[in-house]
Amino acid sequence: MVDRKRLAEVARYARELHARGWVANHDGNVSVRDDDGRFVATPTAWSKRLVEIDDLLVVDRGGKVLRGRHRLFGEWPLHRAVYDARPDARAVLHAHPPTASGFALAGVELAPLAAPEIAVSLGDQIPLVPFAMPGSEPLERAVAAAAECFDALLLERNGVLALGDDLEQAFLRLELVEHYARQLLVARQLGGPQPLSAEQRGALQQARTKAGLGPEARGLKR
Fold first, then answer.
1. Alpha-carbon distance 95 to 91, whole Å?
2. What percent of the chain stands above pLDDT 90?
3. Residue 2's pLDDT is what?
């Protein structure tokens, strides 16, 4: 039996994605890993604006629906790839925040690394995962490889994927990616962002690890 408090939290964050303007139509999806290895996930073909507790699904790793009256979203393999690559991940959010997704559609990286808070919160890169057809194994493998090293990913011609210890952390990381995309867009109009030096990046990475953030701090390979 899944805790209704957890179900309520998933539904709340799904609705918040819509409220922020980060999803439209049936875009985006939310999932959390439960203690028993099952997952709570939002349904396919369902506006995040309308998600309530009774709309949510409980699924196994393979995507088999164990509880719920709707179908699972087709991008479940991307969530599974993150969970497999990052044993510490307890939540995954996928959305299309407009500015960051604009970079993704153009195939432009969210670079250079110019803001110290990005280096500490997200690491020394927000990788751009190369385009592969939705639902394909190459895309799943590429997401897994990127998630091993990073906490937020830009998916070319798609949007943003963020993971976290819980939904709040994943949400904040997604929020930060969109915020940084907006900053970079303005900085480019003003002559270009000033990148952090290698020495500065190294010091910030040490601060990140000391704060217990990222795969290195958790003994996971990079």
1. 13
2. 91
3. 73
Strand order in the sheet with 57-59: 65-67, 57-59, 39-41, 29-33, 91-95, 160-164, 152-155, 128-129
For residue 194, tell me if it sits in a domain.
yes
Is residue 31 within 8 A of residue 86, CB to CB? The reply is: no
The answer to whether residue 31 is domain-embedded is yes
Burial 128-140 (b: 16+ CB within 10 A, else e): bbeebeeeeeebb
pLDDT 10s digits, 134-148: 889 999 999 999 999
- Name the one residue in this structure whose structure tokens are 């790839």: 81
Whether 146 maps to a domain, the answer reads yes
**Number of alpha carbons in the 13 Å side-chain half-sphere of residue 18:** 16
Is pLDDT above 60 for 222?
no
Whose tokens are 């394909």? That residue is 136
CA distance 171 to 217: 20
pTM of the model: 0.95
pLDDT of res. 221: 56
Q: Which residue has the tokens 């900053």?
A: 183
CA gap 130, 114 in Å, rounded: 22
**Residue 220 is assigned to a structural domain of this protein:** no
